[in-house]
Each structure stands twice: as structure tokens, then as C-alpha cells.
Amino acid sequence: MSESEIIRIFDTTLRDGEQSPGCSMNLSEKLALARQLERLGVDVIEAGFPIASEGDFESVRAVAQEVRNTSICGLARTGSADIERAAQALEGAASPRIHTFIATSDIHMDHKLRMGREQVLAEVDRAVRQARGHCDDVEFSAEDATRSDRDFLVQVFSVAIEAGASTLNVPDTVGYTQPEEFADLIRFLRAQVPGAEKVVFAVHCHNDLGVAVANSLAAVCAGARQVECTLNGIGERAGNTSMEEVVMAVKTRPDVFAGLDTNIRTTEIYPASRMLASIIGVPVPPNKAVVGDNAFAHEAGIHQDGVLKAAITYEIMTPQSIGRPSNELVMGKHSGRHAFHERLKELGFDLEGEEFQLAFRRFKDLADKKKTIFNEDIEAIVADSVIREDDRFAVEEISVHSGTFAKPTATVGLRIDGEAMKATALGVGPVDAVFKAIADLTDTKSELLRFQVNAITGGMDAQGEVFVTVSQDGRRVIGHGADPDIIVASAKAYVHALNKLAWHKRRRAVAGPRGI
Ligand code: KIV
Ligand code: ZN
Predict the structure, then answer these.
(1) Does residue 513 register a pLDDT over 80?
(2) Among 37, 121, 460, 505, which residue carries the largest CB count within 10 Å?
(3) Which ligand is nearest to the Cα of residue 234, counting in written order?
């Protein structure tokens, strides 16, 4: 298949996705995800917005230095300092891309930028030329393109091409457009922009009206050849275009997307989706297309009967095609190091050295308590075993006393900045007592907004999985923890959230507030 028939997948999970509430990641988490995106075969990883903060700069730099087989992109407004910062962060990249953007709708130009059209055109020209001074691969985005005047968009894009941009992005920033209207805009731009045949048209859709994927696919049919998207569709407000849905639509309907394909290794989709969910602690809704728990579950009797007779009756794609491993292959206490390593690989995790040893020890401990270990259990073990060098706090021991007659009391041992510390607290229940002891030890004053506990798998001996949403100083984060004992899982989840808050506090101290 020739290059022109490939739809490039531009992944912005680490930038537009990470920016959304509760989805923030620290440096080691971003690196782990970037490695998985490389395995997945995405064409471009947008690793962050380097001028936004020191943390963003460092993450883009680290991803650029480590990931060699994918283009690494840094976002920049059109200001000169933004472009320089992005170029600096991308210095070590094998294949760097600078992505510069400015709003082009009258609404944004009047109310946000306070710039006239001529000024915006001049910005585009200068920014793209400056970016081209640093690398050959420059993308230009017309923010709020779908609410921009069409003839002005033509002017903006022709200036960007003249200045040297090779990818032109048409974002539906506010998730406003509808599929046929969006396809029409792409056809119009491809026909009207001078030099359109020399560049790739990209689309970047938000899901405010629930049609981000439909809009992206309609744009592909109209000639767009780069789709900007995120894993699990995370992103600002209602999210971005969901990568797995776009990729599997193209794969499953070759009759509709005739002659088109992506470079994605679809068997890495499920591991990537699970890895993201366990890193950010935001579960995938069970009915989410392609990667949700129920996406391949046939519950209705008529459906089950049909699938048993011939899978094609109700199954348009197979779980294997997205790398969803079968839970029939359970593991237990007799499974050895090699089998565990193989299973980790199947699930998309490449733990080595100390991390692998830690995960294997946790697996053995769990297997002593629980007869069968499912893939979900292994994912929870991995989430706990990834060494987060930037974590300040770690749970060392928990003991609680509670019941019908006892006043709930918890003693918690934490390691704080490397030092072992212990505290005891009373609470209205054992979880409350544990959280109070942790808050005392860490000297934090966060507010617990949400507490959710699920059983990771079926069975009386299932592990408990806890998600907590915690907020402090206007920043909201989600923490995740798993353990056969739900009190311990709760402590891990709370400490995970406090580590994220501590990380943001350090990041803010260096850079001030972020945002586009
Ligand atoms: O939604 C948007 O317009 C963006 C741009 C920066 C591409 O994220
Ligand atoms: Zn966006």
C-alpha cells in the first residue's frame, strides 16, 4: 500500500488527554505510555506543551530522547518563546515535529486574542517560519476552525503552506460541527487552498456533541489523512476522538474506507487502553466501543445462541484482533517467573529488573491468597509495581481495629521522602481512620470528593479496586489502588492521589499555572 493511502494516527493522549481533569500523569507514567504508543505504531506522539510548565518541558524532552521509532511532537502557540521552548524540548528527538497553533474564528480573535485578521496572518507566517528554522516537520493548527470564516481559513492555510508547514490541522475545538458539514469543510479546503496537494490535512475533534469519531471518519472520507486522537477518548471536557474507534472502524469496514489503512498494530490496542486506565485511575466505561468490558460480551440469549453457531452473526471484529487476552488462561501459585513474564508481555507490559522482581513477588503473594489470578489482577499488580521515582509517599503497613463495638482505629506506616513514619488515628469507620492517619503523616489537607470500590474480577476472593477523587487548592486528581484487602487498597489509592497532588505542587512551584 502506498504512503498516500495511510491515515496517519497522531496521538495526543499525553497532551490534550493529559490536560483534562483527573488524567494527569507524572514523568515515569508518561514515559511508560509513550513506549506503549510506540509499540502500538502511532505515527506521531504529541508529548506535551513545553512552555506550559517545567514538568511538561521535561516530559517532552524525556519522550523525545527515549522513543526513536515515532515522530515526537511538541505544541507551541505562535509566540516566539513558545516555539523556542518546543524546539529545545525536541532537541534529542530522532524525528521532531513542532506543532504551532492560533485561533482563527472571529469569536476567538475578538474575545480571546484581541487580534485582527491581518495580525493573525502575520503570526502564522512568522511562527511557521521560525519553527521551520528548527525542524522540517511543522504542523499548523487553526484553532476553532469549524467556527471560522471559510474564506479566511483558506487565507490562513495558504500562508502556513507558503511559510513551510507540511501538515494543516482543522480542529473542531469546541465539538460543534456535524459529520456532513465537517466533510464538506475538508473538501472545500482541499479544493480552495493553493498548494493543498503538497500537504496533509489533519483533523482534531472534540466530543462535546458525541460525534468526534463520526466527524473524524467523515473527514477521512473527504480526504483528511491525519487523525488526531487519544486512547480511550480522554481529553478536554467530553474528550477527544477515540483512537481505538477510528482505527477499528477503518479496519472493519474496508468497503467504506476503500484503499485506506493505518500503521497501527491493532493487537496492541487493548494493552494500551488498559495501561492508560491503570495509570490515570480513570476506568473505561463498560459499554465503551472496542475497549469496554462489555464490548464483546453477548448477554442476550438469542445473541449467545447465534455467536455459538457462528461468531459472525453478532461479532463484527474479534477480541483477539485488538489484543484482548482470553481470561480462560488463568494463572495461579504454580505459575513461574517465565510464565509471568510472558503474560506481562501479552498484556503489553515490559517490566524488567527491579520492577519485574517487585511485580513477581506481589504476584506470588497474591497467588497465596487467591486461587486464580486473572489478567485484571496482573494489571493491578503492574500499576502498583511501576517505580515512580517522583513519588514522595509509599504505603508500608496498615493495621485497623473496627467492628460493631470497637471505635475504628488505624495505624499506618508510610515511607515519606525515604523516611519511615507511623501514625494512629480514630475515624467513623476503618477507611476514615486510615485516611486521617495518612493525612496526619503527610501533612496534607485535601478534600475527598469521591470513593469507589469494585471487585476486580468475580469470586469471593476477588481483589478490591479502589478509586478516590481528591482535591486540593483547586486541583482534582484520581488515585487508584488494588489489594485483596479493601482497606489496604483504599490506603494505596489515597496515597496515589496524594503523590499526584505533591507532584503538581512541585511542578506549579517551578512554572506557575498552565493552560492554552
Ligand atoms: O482543540 C484544539 O483546537 C487543540 C489545538 C491546540 C489543536 O487542541
Ligand atoms: Zn484539542
Answers:
(1) no
(2) 37
(3) 2
